[in-house]
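Section 5.1 Outputs to date
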Amino acid sequence: MNELLHKIENEIQRQSYAMLLGLQVKEAEEGRVVISCQKRPDLLQQTGILHGGVIGGLCEATAGYAIQTMMPEGKDLVGVEYKISLMRALSADTVIAVGKVLKMGKQLAVAEAEVFNAGSDKVAAKIIFTGMLIDK
């Protein structure tokens, strides 16, 4: 297992909300992560698709974890802003989020994440996320 993948797995374990959503890291490299989430009855809205709040949590986490692959030791990350666009229903048994760092600064970092139904190349949701690096 690569070191960055192990680091992101540990970060997921530290965050109870990520654990609640059942997030699983699939790939991790500097500036990029792939995270999956399984469809469960308790994560759905009334029409049977993934709830928007779950999608937001998945997107924010994925963008944040992409940033964490580039953060220096002794730093942590707190979200300060994001904008999400929900473009199509997420109804597959597994959804996949791909996060990429756009700008890595000393105090602020910006990343994006796109979410797909497994097996589809059509973007279902996209976020632009800004996080603030803080001392642990």
